[in-house]
Amino acid sequence: MVTCCETWIISIFIPALDQNSDSNNKPLVTMGKLTTKKASENEELLQRAIKAVKRATDPVSVSEASAEFSVNKRTLYRRVAGTHSSAVGGHQDQQRITVAEEKAIGRWYFEQDDRGLPPRLDMVKDMALHLESKRMEADSHPLPRGKNWIRRFLTRNPSLAAKLSTQLERQRAYANDPVLLQDYFAKLGRLIRQNGLRSSQIFNMNEKGFLMGLAAKAKVICRHGRRNPRVTHDGKRELVTVIETISACGSLLAPLIINKGAGHYLGWYRNLTDKERDYQFTYSPKGWTDNQLALKWLIDLFEPQSAIVAGIGAARLLIFDGHGSHITFEFV
Length: 332
Prior knowledge:
By secondary structure, the protein is an alpha/beta fold. The protein has two domains: about 20-155, no CATH class; about 200-315, no CATH class. Helices cover about 35% and strands about 15% of the residues. It has nine helices and six strands, in the order βααααααααββββαβ. Helix 2 packs across helix 3. It is elongated. The chain starts with 7 loop residues before the first strand and ends in an 11-residue tail after the last strand.
């Protein structure tokens, strides 16, 4: 089910994340440059100074704490008196997403970072808009976030940082590194044991593209001594993508077949066999999968079909690669 030439992601298919649960026992995300290191360090010193002033035994004065921790005396006095809020806690009543929703975004980023696929900054805005739209009326749409929203979001969450990613060809990075492979299989085995997963609850999916009308190399019979003959093809080279899924017990789910086109065409289905009539067909402008089609596959195909194989109500483990359509917040 798992090959060494791809980066695989592990995702447990269980009920959605509880946004009200406490996540203080681990950092939200590791992301930088938009929130300054100095501001984060100053906030930490202020918190330590406030604790020193308010501790039950042997408290110190505001002046002494200001000198000891090198923080602004006036700011410390206001924070102790409760007339001034921190960047993390201030203006919460004016925020368009709730504190619980911000924590949920942070936990999602942390999980994606652990999987080796930290999301881009624009996904923070997309997820915030998505959460806000779920609380609005059906005919209402949230306003777009301003250009400084991410900076303020990171300021409220100092455990987040924004860093520039580096590019490295995927096969070189993962295929032949025994340390990474051992770590992957250790995590996979631990996840299977912790959840008591049977082979019928473990699934692997992947996409495969086919160029229609392109002739492949094949053995042919020809005169001895002549050059290798050429095989002709019609030159259409239209791409068809198939999303396939199999369980560890060998059960195949119906594939999703993505044709190139602007709609369904009768010719696609004219010569289907009885087995092929159970397949799911859709289309895209170039015959590729995208975020919407991947989500459609997850909801309309994987969810109901895998529940039959695994058993109604049973958790399912889905193993897939790092394609961009698999790591959107809607899919996760």
